[in-house]
Amino acid sequence: MQVSPFSLFVFHVVQAERLVARGPKGEREEIRYLHPSSGFMHQLEDKVQPALRKEDHLFTQGEGSAILFLPGVEQRGAYSILERIYAQVDLLEAETVIPPLKNETHILIGCGSYPAQGETRESLLRQAEQSARCVSLRPRIVTPSLHTMVPSTYSTRQVPIRRVNVPVQGGTPPTTPFLRLPATLPQRLTRFIPHSLAHELHCVPVGKDQRVLTVAMVDPQNREHIDYLTQLTHMTIFPVACTQEELDMLLATKW
């Protein structure tokens, strides 16, 4: 029996609120992960719609999540749509959202198609849960909120998010997002890291937002490499994980 192809896109949005926690031992910075307002999700839907067919629509699922079901779209077509969606979402700016964003906001987009060679519906869902693209919106000015800690009862609430962290000054988060790499890299990104250095450090630049450069790395926990890239580019490095195979395919073409 012939199975009709379809593709599934999963969107997840998380905001990182920086807090200055004041306790008995002084002040320290904490990060609290939040979901955006429904108003932001509606604006995200409006931004994605031009990349879709008239009959296709993005549906919000609870706080900070949305799904897009595309019947009749196989894997190759899904990748093309993914690039169009990414280009649309990348147009968002923290200052032009209504109301303007006060916290760092990360939009992760996962994509899966069925059927694919050796793929089951279960593996489709696992694939769609992974981040294929990530767009980060950062306000130009972020003022940490002051929070007074109550000893033994205070905790920083975190929403349950799969492999989502934001870069923190002074250290790399213990886990990082996983990114499926595109087939090619735009010149506006490759100019930040010479090909010889990218080959040596096993990394490629995959995104830029203001003074933050997103870099896909086989070893995104390598503090030495991240510090070196920070000094080279004079930007904050946001590391994401990737597969060795996809990275090698990009590094095979010199820039």
Automatic annotation (TrEMBL):
Pfam family, one: MshEN
Superkingdom in the source lineage: Bacteria
Domain (Type II secretion system protein GspE N-terminal) ranges: 177-251
The protein's name: Type II secretion system protein GspE N-terminal domain-containing protein
Organism the protein comes from: Ktedonospora formicarum
